[in-house]
Amino acid sequence: MKYLYLIFSSLKRKKLRTGLTILSIMVAFILFGYLTAIRQAFDAGVEVAGADRLIVRHKVSIIQLLPQSYEAKIESIDGVDNATHSTWFGGIYQQPTNFFAQMPIVPEELFDMFPEFIVSDEQKAAWLNTRSGVLVGRGLVDRFGWKLGDRIPINANIWRKKDGGRTWEFDLVAIYDGAEKGTDTSQFWIRYDFFDETRAIGAGLVGWYTVRVSDPDKAAEVAAAIDAEFANSAQETKTEPEGAFIQGFANQIGNIGFIIMSIMSAVFFTILLVAGNTMAYTVRERTNELAVLKAIGFTDLGVLGLVLGESFALTFVGGVLGLGLASMLVSLGDPTNGSFPVFYLPGSELLLGFLLIVVMAFIAGIVPALQAQKLQIADALRR
Amino acid sequence: MFNWISQVFSVTQFSIRSLPQRKGSSAAALLGIAGVVAVMVGVLSIAQGVLKTMQSSAGESSAIVLRSGADSEMMSGLGGEDTRIISEAPGIARNESGPLASPELFVVINLPMRSTGTDANVPLRGVQAPAMAVREGFRMVEGRMFEWGLNEVIVGTGAKQQFAGLEIGSSIEVGQERWPVVGVFDADGGLSESEIWVDAAVLQPAYRRGNSYQAVYAELNSRDAFDQFKDALTSDPRLNVKVMRQSEYYDSQSTTVYNLITGLGTIIAVIMGLGAVFGALNTMYTAVSSRTREIATLRALGFRSGPVVISVVSESLLLAFAGGLIGAGLAWLAFDGYRAATLNWASFSAITFAFDVNIALLAKGIIFAMIIGLIGGLFPAIRAARQPVAQALREL
Fold first, then answer.
1. B295 and B192 within one domain
2. β-pair type (A188-191, A102-105)
């Protein structure tokens, strides 16, 4: 207890300096939280990707289509539990800046393949009964303020309708929520049967397949078997785990992880300088006092603990404030106004933040603490 | 007045001379500001690089024709007959071999990125002879041009650097076929450098495109010929097209990426800047408090408070300026010209670009540093000037 009191009173000594140091540490941790959420947004889906799911696409490029007949062939391969196809619709709602993904899929297959999309039974039934119906994620519904029953016009650049028109109208009949925080709720699912009979060209062609394997440990073998099945055909395939597929896509935008790591290192290096410098000052200023403490019986180790404790107190207050403010900022919504499919701060990253607090406090405090420990009473009192 | 100015000089000189006594804390503030500026300039140079690549792609009098409603080449589609009608429109410049109008096919092909080993959507462009003529900066830098009608490709310098397997002598796999790389070209830093080019007649059957194209790139007689060209095409009942100046087209392609990076970069810089302000305040308060008696002595000798404020602020500005200079210099050394690839959302394809640390950006960084220095110095300066002389002299 007496140590806590001593730490507290030495922090009170120069309130302004203590306050400023806490604020600069706080800023570092706000950035830590915010940048982590941004990185998370770019990697959206990698963490929640199904370990038992594979993506099968055209080997030459993702824009080339595969025959729908591949589904039965894939399902007959050993170790495949189920396969379902989706296609890139690539339409525009009102204006190009309102970008979001739309994809046709077979509804029953979606419910089976993606258990992370949670839909009420009533709305499931409504979607199964409405050919022009769509299932839309909660995030997207909120972004545009849609509600059940709305008719949503989408301008299709790729898929012209049989009547020559390019405006498709869909009925919003079902909304899904994510089972986890990281689930992408920005998707717009169209019924494949409606899509296939309405499009002017490309009947029977689909974009890619999602495959569920019965044993995730054998995923690599199954992937190889699928590619072997279609080798030397007109449409060869490339199969990879869902996580790798999403990661590959994120990598195309840039090495976001690396950029963010670099920024974060610069930030922490800077703040470490500020905090370390403050600690060095407090020790230098209080040489006399520390010597008195030693003279009245505090051990060397006790004095070391005192200085380190001060460093911990400063960093802890600043760090916790920063992490708290970061969570608040992140929960206010993403800075791009809806372009990120997910924007949140995962618990594991908060834990990492706490670890960083401890490490930073130690590095900033250890040198001055050792100096304090080594003080010779007689010398120090004379200064 | 003269007396006042000479006071400013002597006090400032005095405080700057005493800087070495406060090495530790001054260096911490200086490096802190350098870090902020380096990060800010570094992040913003990405946006500048993308913008520069897009802007240098468009000539003054060049236009692009897409299908009406399409926002990018990827989404567009034009029949072979449409492209013939477009080539004959008024306003198009001509050379000895015909009109400078280039119908082109635009698709992507998966190739691994060198940096991560994962696949990227590399643009693959099917061209006809006028494609080289409508791009002013186009020139071969290595190897040779492909032979028309053969399965040969040439690659842009950016594509060759960023994606694996595009050296001369290697080949790309397109379905059952292998197309050899026979040459490398550059295009004055323009967007084409991210691409692979092949004869359109070879690409059409490989991607089952029949006799269709996606865009027509045209070189006009002059900048002013654009309206005539646009009116002729949009009023032609046989066509359903959208005509844009290339500069507008590339602007619209780069806004998303540019705004995203600039927005995020600014948020990060402001938050970091706030941290640096706290650091600078700390340093300057410490500097002032360690010189309390000194400053009080000066005031007792008759120095006015104005020069005292200015001397503290200029010390802080000096530190900030040095920090800004170091930060901007580091960013310039580390990032300028650094090549990377990103995804152009509009066309769903990769673009390669070089980070661009330009003068305007460096100036921005240094100004930002000075603002941090000004705020960091002002409050401590006011406190120094306000302290009652008698009390301050008595302090330890």
1. no
2. parallel
Contact between B345 and B12 under an 8 Å Cβ cutoff? The reply is: no
Is-contact B146 B183, C-beta < 8 A?
yes
Residue B60 lies in a domain: no
Whether chain A has a CB inside 8 Å of the CB on B118: the answer is: yes
**Domain stops at, among A219, A253, A287:** A253
Scanning B145-184 for CB atoms below 8 A from A yields: 173-176
pLDDT band per the 50, 70, 90 thresholds, residue B209: confident
**Least Cα separation, residue B314 to chain A (angstroms):** 21
What is the three-class DSSP state of A54?
A: strand
- How far apart (Å, rounded) are the C-alpha atoms in residues B56 and B52? 6
pLDDT in tens, B275-318: 888 888 888 888 888 778 888 888 888 888 888 888 888 888 99
Question: A9 and A155 share a domain?
Answer: no
Interface check for B296 against chain A (CB to CB < 8 A): the answer is: no
Q: Which domain holds residue A78?
A: 53-253
**B48 with B73, same domain?**
no
In this structure, the answer to whether residues B157 and B288 fall within a common structural domain is no
Q: Which of A37-41, B94-98, B153-157, B392-396 has the lowest mean pLDDT?
A: B392-396
Tell me which residue range forms the domain holding B201: 69-239
Q: What is the pLDDT of residues B307-350, one digit of tens each?
A: 888 888 888 899 999 999 999 999 999 999 998 888 887 778 88
Question: Both B113 and B142 in a single domain?
Answer: yes
- Looking at the structure, do residues B270 and B210 belong to the same domain, yes or no? no
Residues of chain B in contact with residue A35, where contact means CB-CB under 8 angstroms, are 268
CB proximity A155 to B under 8 Å: yes
Report if residue B203 sits inside a domain. Answer: yes
**B62 contacts B230 by C-beta, under 8 angstroms:** no
Give residue-wise pLDDT tens across range B15-40: 778 777 777 778 888 888 998 899 99
Inter-chain touch A274–B278, beta carbons under 8 Å: yes
Which residue from B minimizes the CA distance to A254? B342
Q: For strands B215-219 and A53-58, give the pairing.
A: unpaired
- CB distance from B340 to chain A under 8 Å? yes
Predicted complex: ipTM over 0.90: no
Q: Which of B39, B76, B118 is nearest residue A248 as measured by Cβ atoms?
A: B118
- Give which of B202, B153, B162, B156 is closest to B180, Cα–Cα: B153
Is A166's CB within 8 Å of B69's CB? yes
Q: How many helices (H) and strands (E) does chain A have?
A: 14, 13
CA distance A233 to A348: 45
**Contact flag A90-B256 (C-beta cutoff 8 Å):** no
Is the Cβ pair B24, A24 closer than 8 Å?
Answer: no
**Model confidence pLDDT, tens digit, residues A199-226:** 998 899 999 999 999 998 889 999 999 9
Residues B130 and B213 in one domain: yes
pLDDT tens string B108-161: 999 999 988 888 999 999 999 999 988 888 999 999 999 999 999 999 999 999
Domain total in chain B: 2
Residues of A in contact with B274 (CB under 8 A): 27
Count of structural domains, chain A = 2
Instruction: Name the pTM for this structure.
Output: 0.83
- A134 and A247 fall within a common domain: yes
* Closest residue in B to A91 (Cα–Cα): B75
Please list every residue in chain B whose beta carbon sits closer than 8 Å to the beta carbon of residue A266. Answer: 35, 38-39
B314 & B180 share domain: no
Torsion A221-A223-A226-A232 (CA) sign: negative
Residues 284..313 of A with a Cβ closer than 8 Å to B: which? none
